[in-house]
Amino acid sequence: MKAFFRRLRWLTQRSRKEAELREELEFHLEEEAERRQGEGLAQEQSRWLARRELGNLTLVQEDTRAMWGWTILEQLGQDLASWTRSCCALFRCPIPSRWRC
Question: What is the pTM of this model?
Fold first, then answer.
């Protein structure tokens, strides 16, 4: 039951949690880059290696969101919204004369 309320609370605080996640990832990138600079690498090279080691930031964010939220429900909502837009666009189009009774 705790997990349910935690996820529900996360949905209400989503933008704040997203900002915290971005900050956390940037912190880890900076820490890794500083560690590599301490090993004698140039700043650009150390930053590049830190990004490479952490991996694709967008993928890391998506994986983290999947653990936090209700991915299935969010995807279902997106699918329903897309279906609704498609149906509205379909019915607003003029009907060809050959299809009319």
Answer: 0.56
